[in-house]
Design goal:
The chain is α+β, with helices and mostly antiparallel strands. Helices cover 32% and strands 33% of the residues.
């Protein structure tokens, strides 16, 4: 699995896609701490937002009807950790989330009029990612291109590459949603593997992750 981080300017994004509130005058910086869900139809994340004016409120910034924002913690007079949900319509996150075999990761941040986006995926996914950005008129600057290395403290570090691919794609394509958006057979076809093989990798990955969360051995 590979990792790419690109940088885009506010001017470039505005010219190609229109004005984004992520570059609103209210916001000094926005940092995604965790992506909980990333699909072409919905983005769910935990983010840290720093406002330019301590007297302003989060509701002054996130005003689009499709947005749901809840303050989880106020770290300072001008800084909030928030739960954020939106249904993007032909916006940058929707475009990036539609890249086959890839998914958004951190770092993802807005700072000093620039946006940094990170995508994990195979080599083909990363190529499609760059071509997709260029196709809509964006000119990404590559700031990082490397193998994706996960900390041993990360639950993903417990999985094999095949198990990571299966569990990530299952989550991304809605296998764990309720109601379920994709079954094992359809997911196996998307990954180009047999359904029994997918089920084996998925179950082994799930057992390792549950064992990690419960502090128990991954094998009996």
């Amino acid at each position: 699995m590979r990792r790419i981080t690109v940088e885009l300017t506010a001017a470039d994004i505005t010219k190609a896609l229109g004005k984004s509130h992520r570059f609103d005058d209210h916001i000094r910086s926005l940092e995604v701490l965790t992506f909980l869900k990333s699909t072409p139809n919905e983005i769910v994340e935990i983010c840290r937002v720093q406002l330019n004016d301590p007297a302003a409120s989060i509701t002054d910034v996130f005003t689009h009807p499709s947005e749901e924002v809840s303050v989880l913690q106020q770290e300072a007079a001008d800084t909030y950790v928030c739960f954020y949900r939106k249904r993007p319509i032909r916006r940058l996150l929707s475009i990036v989330s539609s890249v086959p075999g890839g998914y958004l990761s951190t770092p993802y941040e807005v700072r000093d009029g620039r946006l940094r986006i990170t995508l994990l995926g195979n080599t083909r996914s990363l190529r499609i990612f760059l071509k997709t950005l260029q196709k809509v008129g964006l000119h990404p600057k590559i700031v990082l291109l490397a193998d994706a290395v996960f900390s041993l403290n990360s639950p993903l570090g417990l999985l094999t590459e095949k198990q990571k691919t299966v569990i990530i794609d299952a989550f991304k394509n809605g296998y764990y949603d309720f109601p379920r958006k994709i079954g094992s057979e359809a997911l196996a076809r998307k990954l180009g593997i047999r359904e029994p093989t997918l089920v084996i990798h998925r179950r082994k990955a799930e057992r390792k992750l549950f064992a990690h969360m419960l502090g128990m051995p991954s094998k009996r």
